[in-house]
Amino acid sequence: MNLTRNTLILIVCALIVLGGGAYYFFFFNTGTGAGVSGDTAIASDAELSFIALVSKLDPITFNTAILSDPRFTSRTDIRTTVVSETTGRKDPFAPIAGTVSTTNK
What are phi and psi of 100, to 5 degrees? Predict the structure, then answer.
């Protein structure tokens, strides 16, 4: 594989830029701030109103009466069993023994 001088310089520059970006991303970009934490004080009225609205929400409940409905309990399994069969020839495209091939040459 012949690399011209310009191609080699371009590859080296790209590797240097990618390496510098990775170094900056992993070592200098660590101060992005704290994430969500539960032990911080509430900072605004908007947060207080949001917490008040969330506390008014009812928990989600599911009606499980459908599971005892006769239409549900009378369902039957309609799967069919798969009967295993013998395997075929090892090479299905090979000529069959005892026959004459009639292919065009």
Answer: -100, 130
